[in-house]
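$ run holo --ligand "iron/sulfur cluster" --emit tokens
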Amino acid sequence: MPPALDPVTQQALAARLRFYRDLGLTELYRRPVDPAKIPSFPTQVLEEAAATPATVPDTPPVAAPPAPALLPEEPPIPPRKPFPAPPEVGGIVPPAGRAAALRAIQEEIGDCTRCALHAGRNKIVFADGSPTARLMFVGEGPGADEDAQGLPFVGRAGQLLNNMITAMGLKREDVYIANVVKCRPPANRTPEPEEAHTCSPFLFRQIDVVRPEVLVALGATAATYLLGQKQPLAGLRGRVLSVRGTRLIVTYHPAYLLRDPRQKKEAWADLQIAMRELGLKPPSRS
Ligand code: SF4
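-- output --
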């Protein structure tokens, strides 16, 4: 068992991982290291170092001790599993039948135990909003507030999303909001590929029923599973992409914007692309 990290290092590591996640780097691996295989520093050198008084030497520096033996060759990293093919795009559901079609998907999910996330959830977070919305937002997964209420984006990040929707001249009930996974990952971690691949077919079916004119992916995880491939967020933003016959705009997750409000301007630029695609004008400030 490796020694526990001190709290300061733990916090720095967590901040660094969050930063990587926001950049779209969501798959990291940790190579297990057998402590017995870590070469120890030559005992003689350690003893000499301990015996040396802590003064500045006035003689030229001594040559560095010989480098310890190299670690054994690393095992090859297995190739990443390909993304499973998304379900075929469903037939068009007439607007009057969309609410019932969404209820049918929700009933099919039921008290789902299809992936490991079921174990820690309080409520399944299916979706919120209009079954005939022209605009749909897709996030990563529920957080603590969403898990408690059974609704997506109701915490602080949800409040910011509501403000973004209002700035677009819309109301929350005008749009449709769902997530890649419907159960809260422990400690708000990024869903594992296995979990996202198990749950996302329900999201695809929701998209097919609602048939929004524009989809907005909130963050790298949503973009990854909607597009079926992992790409850095920077390469996806500012473009109009296509998913299941619908235009897709990618922007930052509101939780990221809460951590780095300087990026709100960038997010607003992304939403303006969505507005342009929908033919919307921002509300006047009078
Ligand atoms: S995350 Fe999705 S697939 Fe996993 S248990 Fe919840 S509803 Fe089922």
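-- notes --
Residues 101-278 form a domain with the Uracil-DNA Glycosylase, subunit E fold (CATH 3.40.470.10).
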